[in-house]
Amino acid sequence: MLDLKDYDKSVAAVNQGPLNAKMPLLSWDLYSVFFRTLLGAQHDLSLLNQLSKVYKWNLTLDLDEELQTNDAILVTNANLQIVFASYGIAEMSGYQPAEVVGNSPKMFQGTGTSPEKRAEINQAIAQRKPFEASLTNYRKNGEPYECHIRSFPIFNKKGELTHFIALEKAA
After folding, report:
1. What pTM, to 2 d.p., does this model score?
2. Helices marked H in 17-152 — which ranges?
3. pLDDT tops 90 at residue 38
């Protein structure tokens, strides 16, 4: 059996080695931001997969990839009421996901939002067709931002419209 002195010497030798370099506290702060973002994305993917299973979506989008390549994802029901908002909506708009659920996506629009773009979007939704548009949206604090949206109707395996999904990026 090893003597405790030998154990202490071994631990001291390992702690002095090049692989045990000390990291500044700032690096942990940066990592924790990344880690929170990663956890948020995993949580978002889990919720989207649950929605997909419950409503039997016939969806060809890779939800994991879309979460990684878009700033935010919103899902509305067929009545255009938000039922899901990804973690990224907070950074993009200033609203926490729980604050937007139950509202209409129109909550992001304001005086600078183009009426023509709104009409195009409304027409695509009424026709249950995908659309792509860039428009001026507004953050929680009232500040405008340009938002590029790709949206698709989501049908279930029976061909019934259940939801719309909007993939959003700050333009």
Report:
1. 0.79
2. 25-55, 63-69, 89-93, 97-100, 115-126
3. no
